Amino acid sequence: MTETLGGPHDILDEAQVREFVARSLAGADLDGRSVCVIVPDATRTCPMPLLLGEVHRALAGRATRVTVLVALGTHAAMGPAQLLAYLGGPYAGWTVLNHEWWKPETFVSLGEIDADRVAELSEGRLKQPVRVALNRAVVEHDVCLVIGPVFPHEVVGFSGGNKYFFPGVAGQEIIDFSHWLGALITSADIIGTRGITPVRALIDQAASLIPSRRLALCLVVQSGTGGLYALSFGSPEAAWASCADVSAQTHVRYLDAPVRRVVSVVPVKYDDMWTGAKGFYKVEPVVADGGQVIVYAPHITRIAAMHPEIEQIGYHCRDYFLKQWDRFAHHHWGVLAHSTHLRGAGTYDPVLGERGRVTVTLATGIPEEVVRAANLDYLDPASVDLDALAAEPDTLVVAQAGEVLYRLR
After folding, report:
1. I need a labelling partner for 264 at 20 to 30 A (CA). Which of 18, 140, 166, 187 fits?
2. Which of 44, 41, 2, 38 is nearest to 247 (CA)?
């Protein structure tokens, strides 16, 4: 059974949150069980100390063993000081681990999804088997408890739920596969799409192979503040669906007409363009054809901490890769997907070349030669006057960009 507290209009107070978490876990069959708690990293706004503090109290004397596993996907690991600040604690008796996606020995195989099922789930976009590997900590516990927010997402529609398993603590193959499926659909078409998208269907299928019992505490968080609109507890599928409905009402802003320019002010929690690119994904739908997105992030000094491959490939539209697939198929498909997500919609012709629907300009600390070599435009961040840009009638300046989606009515 799934229970939900809150809705799209008011922020819950701490007492309400604590009582809901305590009541939800008290009613769960956790006595004498080992529990793997799966949480996002610090690139997601989330009041994690509040939530984990209450979970710690609720599991004390009941769970035989608790491991907190940080769902990095393929992000950089969090250091001890970062973990302490983000998670709170320390939590007596608990083990805290990063998902070490770069270490093959940390994975266990769950089998594969066969080609015919992939074709069905992907609505015919892909037809080949995909192996499903997962962090072994998940299957080595009796129960896995996902705790994390739901936001509009460029690969799956809305994040959260089983996405904390895949790609959160998954192996490279299914990460690449699911992200490329999203890229084939395109970020602009799938982001903020409600219901079971093809990528969500693939992720749910993979999650069904997990032998441990799966539970989720899904959240709808006020972007940038950590306040909570809603919480839902139950199966990852049902709790996610409940929160996605609320997120669709709280994390989407609608414009009546497209704008010529958007300036996305990227917060410091995104420390490279791999993560900071969310400042583009969330605003692309409202930019007029031929318009511009300026990603303003003076604190970002590198394209990708963990994925230098993107600097050689650069940023290109989907069809640039599809029409030259022999050149690019051997690269990590997740990298190719990231490339298309930040470049946005466009066309490619062998004679006429590549044409993007909009111009993507980085006003960051990344050197100009690196930016231009990656096929993006450069702007010196010192030259950016946010107040002057905000005063222009055809420019939208988005503060704390990356979590709230902008769409046209």
Report:
1. 166
2. 44
Within 13-98, strands assigned E span: 34-40, 65-71, 94-98
User: Who has greater pLDDT, 170 or 75?
Assistant: 170
Q: Show the tokens assigned to 138.
A: 């998940």
CB 210 within 8 A of CB 201: no
> pTM of the full predicted structure?
0.95
Instruction: Tell me the pLDDT band of 366, cut-offs 50, 70 and 90.
Output: very high
> In the chain, helix, strand, coil percent, each to 5?
35, 25, 40
Question: What pLDDT does 332 receive?
Answer: 96
Catalogue all structural domains in the chain, each as residue range(s) with its CATH number. Answer: 3-250 (3.40.50.11440), 253-408 (3.90.226.30)
Give the Cα separation of 100 and 396 in Å (integer). 39
CB-count burial class (<10 Å; 0-12, 13-18, 19+) for 104: exposed
Residue 139 has a CB neighbour count (10 Å cut-off) of: 16
Residue type, 102: W
pLDDT in tens, 20-52: 999 999 999 999 999 999 999 988 899 999 999
* Per-residue pLDDT tens digits for 132-153: 999 999 999 999 999 999 999 9
Residue 183 sits at the vertex; the CA angle it makes with 139 and 349, to the nearest 5 degrees, is 155
Cβ-Cβ contacts under 8 Å for 96 (sequence gap 6 or more): 67, 68, 70, 83, 87, 89
Q: Which one, of 243, 163, 169, 176, lies nearest residue 204 by Cα?
A: 163
- How many whole angstroms separate alpha carbon 96 and alpha carbon 116? 38
Q: Which amino acid is at 41?
A: D
